[in-house]
C-alpha cells in the first residue's frame, strides 16, 4: 500500500478491492479504539502490509 492508501485505512467506504463495501476495517478499527487500543500499519508496495494491534492489559483480579 502506498502512503495515501495507508492514511485512509479504516475510513468508511474506503476499499482497494473491486468488490467490497469498505466497512470491515472501519468496524474493526472502531472496536479496537472502544477498547482503548490502537492500530499501526506498515507497508511496502508490492511486498505486503503488516498490521499491529495494541490493546491495554486487563487488570489482574487476583492482585486486588
Question: What is the compact description of this entry?
Answer:
With 64 residues, the chain is α+β, with helices and mostly antiparallel strands. Helix content is 27%, strand content 22%. The chain has a two-stranded antiparallel sheet.
Give an overview in words.
- It is a single chain.
- By secondary structure, the chain is of the alpha+beta class.
- It has one domain.
- The protein has helices spanning 3-8, 24-34, and strands at residues 38-44, 48-54.
- A two-stranded antiparallel sheet has the order 1-2.
- The longest helix has 11 residues, at 24-34.
- It starts with a helix and ends in a 10-residue tail after the last strand.
Low-confidence region ranges: none
Helical percentage = 25-40%
The major beta sheet can be summarized as: 2 strands, antiparallel
Number of helices: 2
Question: What is the arithmetic mean of pLDDT?
Answer: 88
Order of helices and strands: HHEE
Q: What's the number of domains?
A: 1
Radius of gyration in whole Å, from Cα? 15 Å
Number of separate strands: 2
| Cα-to-Cα separation, first versus last residue | 45 Å
Strand order of the largest sheet: 1-2
Strand content: 15-25%
Structural class: alpha+beta
Shape: elongated
Q: What are the SSEs and their pairings?
A:
Blueprint: H1 3-8, H2 24-34, E1 38-44, E2 48-54
Antiparallel strand pairs: 1-2
List its traits:
64 residues, 2 helices, 22% strand, 27% helix, single chain, alpha+beta
